[in-house]
Amino acid sequence: MSNWKLICPLEDIPQLGSRVVQRATGGDIAIFRNASDEVFALHDKCPHKNGPLSQGIVHGKRVTCPLHGWNIGLEDGHAVAPDVGSCGKFEVKVENGMVMLAV
Amino acid sequence: MSKPRLVLIGNGMAGVRTVEELLKIKPDHYDITIFGAEPHPNYNRILLSPVLAGEMQVKDIILNELDWYAENNIKLHTGKQIKTIDRVKRKVIAEDGTEEEYDRLLIATGSTPFMLPIPGNDLPGVIGYRDIKDTDEMIDAATRHKHAVVIGGGLLGLEAANGLKLRGMDVTVVHLGPWLLERQLDEVAGKMLQKSLEDKGLKFLLQTQTEALIQGESGRVAAIRFKDGLQIPADLVVMAAGIRPNYALAEKSGIYCNRGIVVNDTMQTYDPKIYAVGECVSHRGIAYGLVAPLFEQAKVAANHLAGYGIGRYTGSVTSTKLKVTGIDLFSAGEFMGGEGYEEIILNDPYGGVYKKLVIKENKLVGGVMYGDTADGPWYFQLLKDKRDIHDMRDALIFGQSLVGDVGHAGNSKAAEMADSAEVCGCNGVTKGTIVKAIKEKGLFTLDEVKKHTKAASSCGSCAGLVEQILASTIGGAYTPAALDSKPICGCTDHSHKAVREAIVSRHLTTKEAVFEALEWKTPNGCDKCRPAINYYLISSHPHEAKDDPQSRFINERAHANIQKDGTYSVVPRMWGGLTTPAELRAIADAAEKYNVPTVKVTGGQRIDLLGVKKEDLPAMWADLNAAGMVSGHAYGKSIRTVKTCVGAEHCRFGTQRSMDMGVKLEKMLFDMYSPHKVKLAVSGCPRNCAEAGIKDVGVIGVDSGYELYIGGNGGIKTEVAQFLCKVKTDEEVMEYSGAFLQLYREEGWYLERTCHYMERVGLDYIKSKILEDEEGRKAYYQRLLDSLKDAKDPWETSRAAQPVKQFIPIKLEA
Questions:
Q1: What is the pTM of this model?
Q2: Nearest to B550 among A16, A60, A71 (CB)
Q3: Which one of A78-87, B187-196, B346-355, B528-537 scores highest in mean pLDDT?
Q4: Count H helices, E strands: chain A?
Q5: Does residue B406 surpass a pLDDT of 50?
Q6: Nearest CA to CA, how far is B308 from chain A (Å)?
Q7: Preceding omega of A82 cis (within 30 degrees of 0)
Q8: Which terminus in chain B has less CB density within 10 A, N or C?
Q9: Residue B206 in contact with residue B153, Cβ under 8 Å?
Q10: What ipTM was predicted for this assembly?
Q11: Which chain A residues touch B558 with a CB distance below 8 Å?
């Protein structure tokens, strides 16, 4: 069973932006919010050269890594073709305006 | 509800390309069915010649494998010729009785070789040259027969002749015209071509008309007789005397045809449910037989089939390359010249090089190149862009590298490069990798090559070279898009120019308004278009359009430069490269307090603190602000630095107070955002210690005032700044350089440096705006000052505003 952790109010993540969640172990998680207020959570490491995806530009359901411009799908963590690779994704949801992350 | 049905007649390059474009912009819109008369999936017809010459295999030239059709849920009928189009019941019927109904029909039936109406033209051994079957037949004939005759000395005929020769046949080319390729070459180049082909063992009969083909005892063709009575043996006759649009089916179905299926600018026929593309089409009276125009047509047709209704096809300028290994020729536009045209000719018959450029009203309108065609695509681009070539006219004939139009990599000619040679230094991509991707993945555009190989996708300095490789690999199929009309990115068909014009003329002030007004294909753009739009909005409507941080690259959001490990580098501003002990002390304190691992002096006379954690940025800014320092904008598409030498303040050679001047300029330009980064330098004398010759604006003090230079660049492509003018006072330096930078801010495309902008519009144009029009210059200068009038330090604004939260990670307790 998922253990849902309260992260922050939805407003604390800008639209088409992100926040970084630091964990004691296992690396940072990036939580993204798109234009339609959907939230997504990915491991904050681009499959290419470990760029911090949280710092990228969010568009549609994708984020562009700030280091070398790979596009990563927010829903599945897969790199958009022709690039190949994927990064871990996490369950995340919004309840009563609060962002919850499954850990 | 079921989807509308789209049926495509013709499984060739134009038709399938249209379907591909359609799937790209509106997948799943139609149920798609494709009929092809040939038994093969879509292949690259242009590469049949290399197949005939034994340089490629049929499998190498397949563009869409059967899997592709399956993956896209396309129903494919191969080997089925359509017999009837029933426009009333809206269905097509194939010869074997297969029927498919349609809501939209796309006809792309291509062309057929023109068979001369002479006796014997239907004998066995007499063929056209069009498809894999013809190619196989020629390859087969070469193994069993000796004498081949090719009728027609055009591109196709010569490629066929070359291939048959390589396969061991004795080949004669019969040509009606006075020289070979008379539609592509002038007489000099035509004769040079003939000479090199003769050296390869081909024989030619020019100005010769065929009378009859004569049957031998076996029933196969055995000889060819000409009007002058000459008769020569021929076991294989290839008719390459032209192609005819294949529109019989359309005409029979009552669709209006006139030497092709007549279409309007949206590729629609007289029956609104029916579209047509490719060689079967007559558009504004022209039927194109080259692939590049067909791809442009495909794009337009797809857009209309998708129901977007934007984009018109208005005809194409075409260029030609002959695919005969070892012979390089290129021609484009109005290459014949003559009265009313100016010609620049380079003729080296011994070296085997001939180049002719045809110029009209300071624009390149055509050209022929023989022996050295590496610059063909570049000339073609100049031609399509209608670039004013006045300022580079004297060196134009020597090509791009001498005009200084390419970076370090462009000096080596693409075709001569070894496969192992590195093309893209940023991403470590070799020529071999690029060529392999082009061939295997069927790539046709620079964008596709960028996506698949990453070449030219970082700094972009090798883009010209990649284009050359593309051109030399796929030959005539390659067409560079005119700069003015290149779409910004995959989210739109609109160019930078069109988007900015819409923002200004329709007074659009938000990105949402732009997306809506210009019918963006994606909900909120992408990392390419959003930063560009954001820049156009804030530069076109200063103080009105609101900056959108989420449309900026991270560096401009964090006011620091992201590094490979995700840390940032912080550069405080030092006006004109000047600092004080107090500032240095504050920088040293900040470096120690935030454990900065690396402190470095930059090329722009600043101090860089590298390796700062993002969460420390706001506090570090606060400390530096407290010491009176502000952001150095070392991260932005913005004013970066004004470098200075010590000048007349201290230097025994100094003629002007360069430090003062530099500080004034830097204060004037503080917080200026621009299409790309902007760097200035002020030197106090012509010894030029501040290196003003490679800056966007370089100021050099002389005894009587200052010389201004513009458009220099010390980076990707070293570009020497051009002399703009001489002025007397400090105020004039500010006015002239400010006006130039504002002109660049208003007209430069996003991510276009001043040197590229200047290359595009020409120095004369800039002079006409800045030097010759005093009122205009003052207006530009005033607009610059207005848009910068309440510039604020982004560090301070950022600290004060809400977004500071974004710098702080959320800690998750275990």
A1: 0.62
A2: A16
A3: B528-537
A4: 0, 10
A5: no
A6: 20
A7: yes
A8: N
A9: yes
A10: 0.91
A11: 55
